[in-house]
Design brief:
Elements: E1 22-23, H1 32-45, E2 52-57, H2 60-74, E3 79-82, E4 102-108, H3 115-121, E5 125-135, H4 165-175, E6 180-184, E7 203-204, H5 222-236, E8 243-247, H6 253-267, E9 272-275, H7 283-289, E10 295-296, H8 299-305, E11 311-314, H9 322-331, E12 335-340, H10 348-362, E13 367-371, H11 382-390, H12 400-408, E14 415-417, H13 421-426, H14 428-441, H15 447-455, E15 459-466, E16 469-480, H16 487-492, H17 501-508, E17 519-528, H18 537-551, E18 556-562, H19 565-573, E19 577-585, E20 592-599, H20 602-622, H21 632-639, H22 651-662, H23 667-688, H24 693-704, H25 709-716, H26 721-736
Parallel strand pairs: 2-5, 2-6, 3-4, 4-5, 8-12, 8-13, 9-10, 9-11, 11-12, 17-18
Antiparallel strand pairs: 1-7, 14-15, 15-16, 16-17, 18-20, 19-20
Helix pairs in contact: 5-6, 6-7, 9-10, 21-24, 22-23, 22-26, 23-24, 23-26, 24-26, 25-26
Length: 746
């Protein structure tokens, strides 16, 4: 049978699922070593529902020809190629196969090893299936310029400047795994092939058949049956008792939601809504619900529209920011939140840390259910263990009890360090703690973040630890020092050199044209162990980073993050000042990104002072437009202590404001004078704590964001228009007392 490459996005040989045993003679020029290894692996796992990995290491031509020979001999009706050589699939559709399952997975690392795509698609390989990995020779692979590494080569670096630490670690794990069979290309570089006429009848056992069609609406395991029953109970029981489903990948939690949704909509005509970080993440729910699939809405559209529903299903909830999940709890009293414990969408542990407090506070009757039995493959599948370890999908920080006991002794010594990344890549226990903390502290941490941490140029990892226990970690990047010829193009928005987020943001968005010429150390991520928080360790780590950056010659220490009042307080305590906030919500955090800076040199001090000076006038305009929905508490966190306007209020403005504060003058008639008052006095009043929070929120919402008092009452928790107006009058009275009168005219 002649072999043809599959078309874009197609599976291979879409015929009957009852597969005949294929022979070596079915494909001319068969690579006997590769086929023999494939046959051996498939024979090992026949009837076990375990999975195996066949590693083809050699030249570009040999690995592709061997892989295509295996695919032709097996003729599996559901094969997925990950890469751009074995098929012409769009490399940007990295998770297009999610929601389906496959019997044969071809991963072509010659086309670039995309760790995010690998982590996602391995979960679609069913038990009894085979993963075929195509790579350069094992000894050469870590030094090979990987096409997928280009995204980590910040300007002016090139892809060849991206280190191979991750690939060296991966090779070590592949060599040590019982799930892997390695086949190297012949030493002479020629294909090892035999004429069909001389072939021994090498038989390849068939790959296992797919699981039963989900249209049967039958749970596959007792675990899944319990999950379906729990979802039905959540839909029919008391309100305010959300259900939280957690599981590793392949345990059927998404399928359980689909099966339950079908029962509810068909049997009871219930209105079911579904949301997830992306539609592809909810594909399994929709597929198992069949024709009774619930209506899907992205999280932002769901909260903007808030359509009525009897039950809200939230899949891969760890990938959705906790503030958005809290809003969903408020709007939908019956809800189910499902999340992967270890996986590329985010982690259940991080979800647990971030969201458990919200659940305990708002819905103390919430229930939890953990699914542990795998459906697609066998328990203790060695390929699952290998991929989890290789991509650190199961990375965890030190145990809470261990950290609590360590800190409770009082005799511990904590030291800061910036470990060599070669050492970090070779020290798996240390790397697992570091990455586990980062996963715990940040949304949507992905396998590609591990590659950035280990391989990207100008990246450093910083630790606070006691003995072998990591208490806090941070990842920083060197940015800036860009050529003078790029300053004007960056400011004008014509150029955006890869990387250098902070200098470019300061120039193109905050108007600080000179910023890209300075050296900046940006804190990309920082995480403190949950059992070690509120002990000043985060500030201690930032201080150590600042000292190291200053020694390294940096002008600025900076960071950018989704702004919340708590995070703004933390970074201010670390000595950083707000200089900018983005006009759009960040897709990952659901919040507007703030930029904070700390000067390390006189040149850096000039930039920080200018940014702080421009903050109040810029926000005074933007808060009435693109930032109109920014939470007042975030605005207060940004403005506290910023330089205010220096010109005193005119006597006429004072009279208007006094009439508003002490009499019955209307708000609209007073708005121009109120705006002048806020620009002059509000920043320092916030820094001094001179305004109660309710007054500060009201004056920001109505005076700077121009909300009507009745509208603001809905968001501020006030009883109505009159209550908000009363808060405004009190705030104006307090602020007027802090502003010096204008000098008398002569």
């Amino acid at each position: 049978m002649p072999w043809r490459r599959p078309p874009a996005g197609a599976s291979i040989g879409c015929r009957s699922s009852a597969l005949p045993e294929a022979t070596a003679a079915t494909a001319p020029g068969v690579h006997t070593a590769a086929l023999t290894a494939a046959a051996r692996l498939l024979a090992q796992i026949a009837g076990t529902r375990e999975r195996r990995l066949l590693w083809l290491a050699g030249s570009t031509q040999w690995t592709l020809a061997a892989a295509e020979a295996i695919a032709a001999a097996l003729d599996v009706p559901d094969t997925l190629w990950l890469g751009t050589r074995g098929s012409s699939a769009d490399p940007n559709r990295r998770t297009s196969g999610l929601g389906r399952e496959y019997g044969l997975l071809m991963v072509d690392a010659w086309a670039g090893l995309d760790l995010d795509a690998l982590g996602a698609t391995v979960g679609t390989l069913r038990g009894g299936g085979l993963l075929v990995l195509l790579t350069p020779p094992a000894a050469d692979w870590p030094e090979h310029t990987d096409p997928a590494a280009a995204r980590f080569a910040t300007f002016p670096h090139q892809p060849q400047d991206v280190a191979g630490r991750l690939l060296r670690r991966l090779c070590r794990l592949l060599h040590g795994s019982a799930a892997v069979q390695q086949i190297d290309a012949p030493a002479d570089g020629e294909d090892l092939a035999i004429p069909a006429a001389d072939s021994t009848q090498l038989r390849l056992p068939p790959v296992s058949a797919p699981l039963p069609d989900p249209s049967d609406r039958v749970p596959a395991t007792p675990d899944q049956a319990r999950a379906v029953a729990a979802i039905l109970a959540a839909a029919q029981g008391r309100t305010g008792r959300p259900l939280v489903l957690t599981a590793d990948r392949g345990r059927g939690k998404s399928a359980a939601m689909g099966l339950a949704a079908a029962q509810l909509q068909i049997g009871q005509n219930s209105r079911i809504l579904l949301t997830a970080p992306r539609r592809s993440a909810a594909a399994a729910v929709l597929r198992h619900a069949g024709t009774a699939a619930p209506r899907y809405l992205p999280p932002d559209a769901l909260l903007a529209e808030t359509p009525p529903a009897d039950l809200l299903l939230v899949d891969e909830a760890a990938g959705i920011p906790a503030p958005l999940l809290e809003c969903m709890l408020q709007h939908y009293p019956r809800s189910v939140f499902a999340t992967t414990v270890h996986g590329y969408e985010g982690t259940g542990r991080g979800f647990d840390v971030r969201f458990r407090g919200v659940l305990d506070r708002r819905t103390p009757g919430w229930r939890a259910l953990r699914l542990s039995a795998p459906i697609r493959w066998a328990a203790d599948d060695p390929l699952e263990a290998l991929v989890n370890r290789a991509l650190l999908l199961d990375a965890e920080p030190a145990a809470d009890a261990e950290v609590a006991a360590l800190l409770g002794t009082g005799g511990h010594q904590i030291h800061s360090e910036t470990p060599d990344r070669d050492h970090l890549a070779d020290n798996d226990p240390l790397l697992r703690q570091v990455f586990g903390l980062l996963v715990l502290g940040h949304y949507q941490t992905r396998p590609s973040d591990l590659r950035q941490l280990l391989d990207a140029p100008d990246i450093a990892v910083h630790l606070l630890r006691s003995g072998e226990t990591v208490l806090a970690t941070a990842v920083t990047g060197r940015e800036g020092r860009l050529p003078a010829t790029l300053l004007e193009p960056i400011f004008a928005g014509r150029r955006r050199p890869q990387g250098h987020l902070l200098p470019q943001t300061l120039s193109a968005h905050a108007g600080l044209c000179a910023a890209p010429a300075l050296g900046c150390r940006r804190v990309l991520r920082i995480a403190v162990h949950p059992a070690a928080r509120r002990r000043g360790l985060g500030r201690r780590l930032v201080a150590a980073i600042a000292a190291e950056a200053a020694t390294d010659g940096a002008d600025l220490l900076g960071t950018s993050f989704g702004a919340t009042p708590a995070l703004l307080r933390f970074w201010r305590r670390c000595g950083l000042a707000p200089v900018h906030i983005g006009s759009r919500r960040n897709a990952a955090s659901g919040a507007h990104a703030a930029v904070l800076l700390r000067a390390l040199t006189p040149a850096g001090e000039a930039v920080v002072q200018l940014g702080c000076k421009r903050l109040m006038p810029r926000l005074g305009v933007l808060l009435a437009g693109p930032l109109r929905d920014l939470p007042p508490a975030v605005v207060a966190g940004l403005l506290a202590g910023a330089p205010g306007a220096t010109e005193p209020l005119a006597d006429a403005e004072r009279r208007e404001l006094d009439a508003f504060a002490r009499a019955a003058r209307g708000l609209d008639a007073t708005r121009p004078a109120l705006h002048r008052l806020l620009c002059t006095a509000l920043p320092q009043a916030l820094a001094d704590g001179a305004l109660p929070q309710a007054e500060a929120d009201a004056v920001i919402a109505c005076g700077l964001q121009h909300h009507r008092p009745a509208e603001a009452a809905l968001h501020l928790g006030a009883t109505g228009k009159a209550a908000v107006t009363g808060l405004l009058r009190e705030a104006v009275s307090h602020l007027l007392g802090r502003v010096r009168p204008a000098a008398p005219t002569r």
